[in-house]
Specification:
It is a single chain. This protein is α/β, with parallel strands linked by helices and 395 residues long. It is 19% helix and 30% strand. The strands form eight sheets. A six-stranded mixed β-sheet has the order 7-4-6-5-9-8, with no helix packed on it. A six-stranded mixed β-sheet has the order 16-13-17-21-20-18, sandwiched between helices. It is elongated and about 95 Å long. The relative contact order is 0.14. It binds adenosine monophosphate and magnesium ion. The site of adenosine monophosphate has 19 residues, from α3.
């Protein structure tokens, strides 16, 4: 059994960023990571832009102007303004190069084609300068940026249509267990609904990993061997749920040994998720997660997600840990580190009831895991604690 920090370090050590890079259109880029710097092809804004509906003024010394026309958003004109002239202008419209300021319409009066200012105009006020946001040729977004809706929107404003991204791994999710049946069928005595594979594939999807295939296998040595042999050839990452403990019908470990995968570790000093197993077979990464649903999901957030993010090129892939203040009292029963389902609200973390590894109810409402390292045996209200954000959509 190895400590949590050692297990995290080993997962990091044995995963590497993919070398596969793809060019995708912006609309397909959500959840991917930039494999190259994106350089801005244009100045943004590409011209001096009015930030207000109002009037562009020929000088800032006057307070009375003759109105000589207008410029609408999208117009391609550059009227020449004399010092005592102004034009009507609208948000987003190009500001005439001779204009010294834009005044918002709320601060003016118009009487018989003459504009009167309620207050003096200020130089360049309400004008977005050329290239205020970014200059042509400057770095728009660096390699390693995780692409979200805002980054897609931003790149679209620059006229970027395609980006180079790291290819996402192909991931197999294997549920093991004779007792598992698909939701929708009637339960017979002794059966439960299989929930881990849909839970893991959904968690993956939340973080932009869509190339997943779900498999189911009975607790049978030969069937497990056949399936694992096949998936090892077809996927970059294998997530196995269940069958990794010490029961007589837990065949996953035996089969992986038979297939000569390189075991990196088995068993971590943590609760939940003690029987976590991590291995490599050439470039394929294998996690065998404990079957208990809450253990499976805990291990996913703590070990699998950072590994997948590293593989797919996310620069800031390490497990996110923040500190917070505990609202709860908790005494550990053993010496293992614990990851407790908790809610974080107003900067304080409250430990939820129902921490058993077989239960998902608390997980469903938790927004953090509260991490109690091995060396800490109890926490009290007011203590500073480490928390790991979970159940969030893509960052
Ligand atoms: P195992 O790790 O195979 O010993 O399973 C531990 C516990 O988790 C048992 O109670 C299993 O029935 C349950 N379990 C295993 N796999 C799943 C799954 N895919 N969905 C729901 N429960 C599971
Ligand atoms: Mg089992």
């Amino acid at each position: 059994m190895i400590p949590v920090e050692k297990a995290l370090a080993l997962v990091d050590q044995y995963t590497e960023k993919t070398k596969n890079i793809l060019t995708v259109s912006l609309s397909e880029a959500l959840g991917a990571t930039l494999a190259n710097d994106v350089i801005s092809p244009i100045h943004m804004p590409p011209f001096r832009q009015s930030a207000m509906d109002g009037y562009a003024l020929g000088s800032i010394e006057e307070n009375k102007f003759n109105l000589v026309g207008e410029v609408q958003a999208g117009d391609n004109s550059d009227p020449v303004l004399q010092k005592d002239e102004a034009i009507r202008i609208f948000t987003g419209a190009p500001v005439p190069s001779t204009a010294k300021s834009v005044i918002m319409q709320e601060k003016t009066k118009v009487v018989a084609k003459q504009l009167f200012l309620d207050e003096p105009a200020k130089k360049d006020a309400n004008i977005r300068p050329l290239a205020e946001q970014i200059k042509q040729g400057d770095l728009a977004l660096p390699k390693g940026t995780f692409i979200n809706a805002a980054s897609i929107g931003y790149l679209a404003t620059l006229g970027v249509t395609h980006v180079e991204v790291y290819k996402k791994p192909s991931i197999a999710i294997i549920a093991t267990g004779n007792e598992l049946i698909k939701p929708g069928q009637e339960l017979k005595h002794g059966q439960i609904y299989e929930s881990n594979s849909i839970m893991l594939s959904t968690a993956l999807q939340t973080f932009g990993f869509k190339n997943t295939t779900r498999y189911k296998v009975e607790d049978d040595y030969d069937a497990t061997l056949t399936l694992l042999k096949k998936v090892l050839q077809q996927h970059d990452v294998i997530l196995i749920s269940g069958g990794i403990s010490v029961g007589d019908y837990d065949f996953v470990g035996k089969v992986l040994r038979e297939l000569q995968v390189k075991e990196i570790f088995y068993k971590v000093k943590q609760k939940p998720g003690k029987p976590l197993y991590f291995a490599k077979k050439e470039h394929t990464t294998i996690f065998a997660l404990p079957g208990n649903p809450a253990s499976s999901l805990s291990c996913f957030y703590i070990y699998v997600l950072p590994a997948l993010q590293k593989i797919s090129g996310v620069a800031d892939y390490h497990l996110k840990r923040n500190s917070s203040i505990s609202n709860s009292t908790y005494s550990k029963k053993g010496v293992r580190a614990e990851f407790l389902k908790a809610t974080l609200k107003d900067g304080k973390a409250t430990i939820l009831d129902g921490q058993a590894s077989s239960m998902l109810r608390s997980f469903a409402i938790a927004n953090v895991l509260l991490y109690i390292p091995e060396e800490i045996s109890e926490i009290n209200p007011g203590d500073t604690v480490q928390i790991i954000p979970i159940n969030q959509m893509m960052h």
